[in-house]
Amino acid sequence: MAEREGPRLDVPLVPRRTLLPTYDPETFGRASERIARFLGTGRFLLWMTIVIIVWIGWNVLAPHGWRFDEYPFIFLTLALSLQASYAAPLILLAQNRQDDRDRVNLEQDRSRNERSIADTEFLTREIAALRMGLGEVATRDWIRSELAELLRELQEREERGQERDEAADGPGGRDQDR
Protein backbone atom coordinates (compact mmCIF):
# COMPACT_ATOMS: atom_id res chain seq x y z
CA MET A 1 0.00 0.00 0.00
CA ALA A 2 1.43 3.33 -1.02
CA GLU A 3 1.87 6.04 1.55
CA ARG A 4 -0.51 8.90 1.27
CA GLU A 5 0.93 12.24 0.24
CA GLY A 6 -0.02 15.39 2.10
CA PRO A 7 0.00 16.58 5.69
CA ARG A 8 0.16 13.96 8.38
CA LEU A 9 -2.21 14.20 11.31
CA ASP A 10 0.35 13.01 13.85
CA VAL A 11 2.82 15.79 13.07
CA PRO A 12 2.09 19.36 14.21
CA LEU A 13 1.90 22.01 11.55
CA VAL A 14 4.68 24.55 11.28
CA PRO A 15 3.28 27.94 12.28
CA ARG A 16 2.79 30.31 9.40
CA ARG A 17 4.79 33.46 9.21
CA THR A 18 2.75 36.58 9.62
CA LEU A 19 3.51 40.23 9.25
CA LEU A 20 1.21 41.11 12.15
CA PRO A 21 2.76 41.28 15.60
CA THR A 22 1.83 38.42 17.93
CA TYR A 23 1.23 38.79 21.62
CA ASP A 24 0.04 36.76 24.57
CA PRO A 25 -3.44 38.04 25.51
CA GLU A 26 -3.04 36.91 29.12
CA THR A 27 0.23 38.80 29.60
CA PHE A 28 -1.22 41.87 27.89
CA GLY A 29 -4.33 41.64 30.08
CA ARG A 30 -2.29 41.41 33.27
CA ALA A 31 -0.19 44.40 32.22
CA SER A 32 -3.31 46.41 31.40
CA GLU A 33 -4.77 45.57 34.80
CA ARG A 34 -1.61 46.77 36.55
CA ILE A 35 -1.71 50.02 34.57
CA ALA A 36 -5.43 50.49 35.23
CA ARG A 37 -4.88 49.87 38.95
CA PHE A 38 -2.13 52.51 38.97
CA LEU A 39 -4.29 55.00 37.06
CA GLY A 40 -6.94 54.70 39.74
CA THR A 41 -4.69 55.66 42.64
CA GLY A 42 -4.03 58.91 44.44
CA ARG A 43 -0.33 58.44 43.70
CA PHE A 44 -1.03 58.71 39.96
CA LEU A 45 -3.11 61.86 40.47
CA LEU A 46 -0.38 63.40 42.63
CA TRP A 47 2.37 62.63 40.08
CA MET A 48 0.20 63.82 37.20
CA THR A 49 -0.51 67.08 39.03
CA ILE A 50 3.19 67.62 39.81
CA VAL A 51 4.16 66.96 36.16
CA ILE A 52 1.53 69.40 34.87
CA ILE A 53 2.53 72.10 37.38
CA VAL A 54 6.23 71.68 36.52
CA TRP A 55 5.39 71.66 32.78
CA ILE A 56 3.34 74.85 32.96
CA GLY A 57 5.74 76.52 35.40
CA TRP A 58 8.73 75.71 33.18
CA ASN A 59 7.02 77.00 30.05
CA VAL A 60 5.86 80.20 31.72
CA LEU A 61 8.84 81.10 33.92
CA ALA A 62 11.83 79.75 31.96
CA PRO A 63 13.73 82.02 29.54
CA HIS A 64 12.32 82.04 25.97
CA GLY A 65 15.06 79.82 24.58
CA TRP A 66 14.38 77.08 27.13
CA ARG A 67 10.62 76.92 26.72
CA PHE A 68 9.44 73.95 24.65
CA ASP A 69 5.63 74.46 24.84
CA GLU A 70 4.49 78.08 24.78
CA TYR A 71 1.04 79.12 25.93
CA PRO A 72 -1.68 77.67 25.08
CA PHE A 73 0.40 74.53 25.80
CA ILE A 74 -0.54 72.56 22.69
CA PHE A 75 2.04 69.83 23.36
CA LEU A 76 0.72 69.39 26.94
CA THR A 77 -2.82 69.09 25.58
CA LEU A 78 -1.63 66.51 23.06
CA ALA A 79 0.22 64.51 25.75
CA LEU A 80 -2.83 64.51 28.05
CA SER A 81 -5.13 63.51 25.17
CA LEU A 82 -2.78 60.68 24.23
CA GLN A 83 -2.64 59.51 27.85
CA ALA A 84 -6.45 59.60 28.08
CA SER A 85 -6.89 57.79 24.77
CA TYR A 86 -4.74 54.91 26.05
CA ALA A 87 -6.05 54.95 29.61
CA ALA A 88 -9.71 54.51 28.69
CA PRO A 89 -9.28 51.26 26.69
CA LEU A 90 -6.86 49.86 29.27
CA ILE A 91 -9.37 50.54 32.03
CA LEU A 92 -12.16 48.94 29.98
CA LEU A 93 -9.99 45.90 29.27
CA ALA A 94 -9.22 45.54 32.98
CA GLN A 95 -12.95 45.87 33.80
CA ASN A 96 -13.82 43.19 31.23
CA ARG A 97 -11.26 40.83 32.72
CA GLN A 98 -12.64 41.53 36.20
CA ASP A 99 -16.18 40.89 34.92
CA ASP A 100 -15.01 37.54 33.52
CA ARG A 101 -13.44 36.61 36.87
CA ASP A 102 -16.58 37.72 38.70
CA ARG A 103 -18.73 35.61 36.37
CA VAL A 104 -16.58 32.54 37.00
CA ASN A 105 -16.67 33.16 40.76
CA LEU A 106 -20.44 33.59 40.63
CA GLU A 107 -20.85 30.30 38.77
CA GLN A 108 -18.60 28.55 41.28
CA ASP A 109 -20.56 30.08 44.17
CA ARG A 110 -23.81 28.95 42.56
CA SER A 111 -22.61 25.38 42.14
CA ARG A 112 -21.22 25.39 45.71
CA ASN A 113 -24.58 26.67 47.00
CA GLU A 114 -26.45 23.99 45.02
CA ARG A 115 -24.21 21.31 46.50
CA SER A 116 -24.70 22.78 49.96
CA ILE A 117 -28.48 22.81 49.53
CA ALA A 118 -28.44 19.21 48.29
CA ASP A 119 -26.27 18.18 51.26
CA THR A 120 -28.58 20.01 53.66
CA GLU A 121 -31.65 18.33 52.20
CA PHE A 122 -29.93 14.93 52.43
CA LEU A 123 -28.95 15.53 56.05
CA THR A 124 -32.49 16.71 56.84
CA ARG A 125 -33.91 13.47 55.42
CA GLU A 126 -31.34 11.46 57.38
CA ILE A 127 -32.20 13.25 60.64
CA ALA A 128 -35.91 12.66 60.01
CA ALA A 129 -35.21 8.96 59.41
CA LEU A 130 -33.13 8.79 62.61
CA ARG A 131 -35.92 10.45 64.59
CA MET A 132 -38.42 7.96 63.23
CA GLY A 133 -36.03 5.14 64.07
CA LEU A 134 -35.45 6.49 67.57
CA GLY A 135 -39.17 6.24 68.20
CA GLU A 136 -38.69 2.46 68.10
CA VAL A 137 -35.43 2.42 70.10
CA ALA A 138 -35.35 2.09 73.85
CA THR A 139 -34.11 5.30 75.38
CA ARG A 140 -32.37 5.55 78.72
CA ASP A 141 -35.41 7.15 80.39
CA TRP A 142 -37.73 4.46 79.02
CA ILE A 143 -35.42 1.69 80.27
CA ARG A 144 -35.21 3.33 83.70
CA SER A 145 -38.99 3.60 83.93
CA GLU A 146 -39.39 -0.05 82.87
CA LEU A 147 -36.80 -1.20 85.40
CA ALA A 148 -38.45 0.86 88.14
CA GLU A 149 -41.80 -0.71 87.26
CA LEU A 150 -40.32 -4.22 87.32
CA LEU A 151 -38.66 -3.50 90.66
CA ARG A 152 -42.01 -2.36 92.06
CA GLU A 153 -43.70 -5.52 90.78
CA LEU A 154 -40.99 -7.71 92.31
CA GLN A 155 -41.28 -5.93 95.62
CA GLU A 156 -45.06 -6.32 95.56
CA ARG A 157 -44.76 -10.05 94.76
CA GLU A 158 -42.24 -10.49 97.52
CA GLU A 159 -44.51 -8.74 99.98
CA ARG A 160 -47.49 -10.85 98.83
CA GLY A 161 -45.35 -13.97 99.10
CA GLN A 162 -44.33 -13.11 102.64
CA GLU A 163 -47.94 -12.39 103.59
CA ARG A 164 -49.03 -15.72 102.08
CA ASP A 165 -46.28 -17.53 103.94
CA GLU A 166 -47.30 -15.91 107.19
CA ALA A 167 -50.96 -16.76 106.56
CA ALA A 168 -50.12 -20.39 105.73
CA ASP A 169 -48.03 -20.82 108.85
CA GLY A 170 -50.95 -19.88 110.96
CA PRO A 171 -50.96 -18.09 114.28
CA GLY A 172 -48.19 -20.13 115.81
CA GLY A 173 -45.97 -20.28 112.77
CA ARG A 174 -44.50 -23.24 110.91
CA ASP A 175 -42.34 -24.53 113.63
CA GLN A 176 -45.35 -25.68 115.70
CA ASP A 177 -46.42 -28.28 113.15
CA ARG A 178 -43.24 -30.28 113.58
UniProtKB/TrEMBL annotation:
This protein's source sits in the domain of life called Bacteria
Name of this protein: DUF1003 domain-containing protein
